[in-house]
Amino acid sequence: MTPAALFDLKRMVSRSLCCLLPVAAALITSSPAFAHSENGAAIDFAGGFTHPIFGPDHVIAMVAVGLWGAFLGMPAIWLLPVVFPLVMAVAGAFGVLGVPLPGVEIGIALSAIALGGMVAFAARPPLWIAAVLVGAFAIFHGHAHGTELPVGADAIAYSMGFVIATGMLHVSGIAFGALSRWPAGRVAVRTAGAVIAVIGFAYLVRVI
Question: Which is nearest to 62 in space by CA: 5, 124, 141, 9?
Fold first, then answer.
């Protein structure tokens, strides 16, 4: 990628970060009456942080983003893990506000199938296609987090928790995906992608 193209990508990320300001405002002003109850769950940063970690369907998709980014190399290794939480935060705000989104659970399962499959088959589409695909699936994950915001929760702290947890899951995927630099590691990474896709399919057909 040329320096000019890389600069354009960085400028796009900067503009995306600016878009989070109105999202934060929406979260601050949103009423708990629009949120869904999550009995017994923490209603603060810790609750948001543990929400994706204790949801295996979320975990495998988020790890897959890191795996695929590492597999594709620069600049996808940082762009994809940035796109996912940015879009997820926006979708989460709509979830908090009660905006409906059909097929959320199906979308989450399909994200694991598609992203895991991309790794398993060593897919290398143009960077913008990879970013759009990752962003599209992030909508379902973000909306799910937003709609499951516990009543009375601190929306900002909760949102920060699940965004940071998502970043950590991406980093874990990147760390494992770095093994693709070596032939044996490449096989291991592609195998991990296949496993993620299979687990996603199991969620889709409700086997697990």
Answer: 141
